[in-house]
Amino acid sequence: MKEKMTKQVLLKDLPGVLIGIVGLILGLVICPDNHYLAGLLLLVCAVCVYVHCVFVQTSRNWLDIRGVFSAIWIATIGLAVLRLTDYQVLWETETWICQIIAYIAFHVGANLGIHFGGTWFVKIKSKNSESEESLNNKDTFRLHRERLFPICVILTIFGIACFVINICIRGYIPFFAADGNNAYIRFYTKWYFFAVAATIVSGLDYYVIKTQSVKIWQKVFLWFSIIYSVIIFPILIVNRSALLSAGLSLITVVFYLNRKKFTVLLLSVIVLAAAFGVCTSGRGYSEAQLKEFFEPSKIEIGVAESTDNSKPVSEDTSNSQSSTEGLPESSSTDDSSANIEDNPDMSISEETDNKGTGFELSGTAAFIYTYLTVSHDNLNEAVLHDIDRTYGALQFTPFNVILRIPSIQQMIDEAHIYKVRDHLTTINLIGYAYYDFGVVGVVVFMLLWSFAFGVIQACYEKGKGIFSLMALGVAMTPIALCFFDPWMSEFIQWVYWGEVLILFIVSYVSVNKIKSKNKV
């Protein structure tokens, strides 16, 4: 019976998975000849897979982990394939294989996790109910709602106190510092870490507001805690990762507690995007600096095929410059204008041949584009080079923060991470898995992570508990930001889950009052 149910779960997901696989394979095949067509095809596939997951596989669950991951993974790959910046090159076949395998493995693992996680949850809950009845004490393990507001107060005050201590140590607030470009980097201390960790409270704040009868002053405090944790604090420290992690955690709680309404999700995402924009502005980069950092290329539309022969040359050039310490490159338009001035006749012939129109991304648009895509290009850099495997050291990084095993730390420190430019350090979700064990690492770790994410989602869907919902909110960071970081190798990601577990224990565990009964 279990095997039959597992097959049904996987078969229901199969059409959406096939759409994504076919789209990625077509992208691999078409990309060398027409990368614009390949990119647009992948963007369409991303929408189709997401729609299938939301309307066919789930009952309009816009935040189902399979739909969110699929849409963002395929869409960011599609954007990267468009190659709108000078540093981008045609990907290796192995890069595509890793991305396709990661996509398949996520769906297999997530479906199995959702299925088995739900089954395990029901069994564990039924056993707990039987043990409670045998003890004739239903208060043994239950949610003590009266504890939730004090927890919110303690965590909020603790986070603010750590932030204030950090300000006193450093003597400034990054957002208001004169040197906005680097001030946020120098702001790090151990107190900074604790202040960031405390932002997990926002989801619990909203749960108390939504489900409990609280006094007006308590509700005001809870809303302040939410706004501070998700918007004010991340903006002041100019930390986009902290803002997105806290925001996604809160959005998940808000979405599920408001009956999975799409309008609620859309409004929440818009607010988070606006806060992200304000946070980014705190780094003080000008349009000229953004263009220099992210190197938008001149995009020609409607150019004759004969003129496209120059494209491979520019790709080879940008590839050979990938190790130039991130120095700004001169744009192709500057070179062409210089040639035109020296050779007027050539300008006439080129204008005759190139009757298309062209455009170039603005500095801000280039930043957003690079933010979404460069991790995939950096994966290709790893594939291009003969890298030394780290054999699990990078995956073990968050645990070694506590264990401090010298041999593992040495491997981590000596690992060379290849990048298209030295200042573009983003690595996607499977990047460290590839550095550790290659394609095999991508398969194994993606299966493990997605299985765990599926179990968390299933636990919430079966039990509707606040702490399983908060854990799902934490999991939404590596799922929705799969293009941005190897999150499972980040210490703070595991700290968030650890906090949720501690809060769960503090909120649920009671002292059993059975001594008197035993005496009798």
Describe the structure.
The protein is mainly alpha-helical and 520 residues long. 71% of the residues lie in helices and 2% in strands. A two-stranded antiparallel ribbon has the order 1-2. Residues 304-355 and 514-520 have low confidence and may be disordered.
Structure summarized in a few sentences:
With 520 residues, the protein is mostly helical.
Write the layout of secondary structure elements.
Blueprint: H1 2-30, H2 35-57, H3 65-81, H4 93-135, H5 148-170, H6 180-186, H7 190-197, H8 201-211, H9 216-237, H10 240-257, H11 262-281, H12 287-294, E1 298-301, H13 311-320, H14 332-342, H15 344-353, E2 357-360, H16 363-384, H17 397-403, H18 406-414, H19 431-437, H20 439-463, H21 466-480, H22 491-508, H23 515-519
Antiparallel strand pairs: 1-2
Helix pairs in contact: 1-2, 1-4, 2-3, 3-4, 3-16, 4-20, 5-7, 5-8, 5-9, 8-9, 8-10, 9-10, 9-11, 10-11, 10-21, 12-16, 14-15, 19-20, 20-21, 21-22
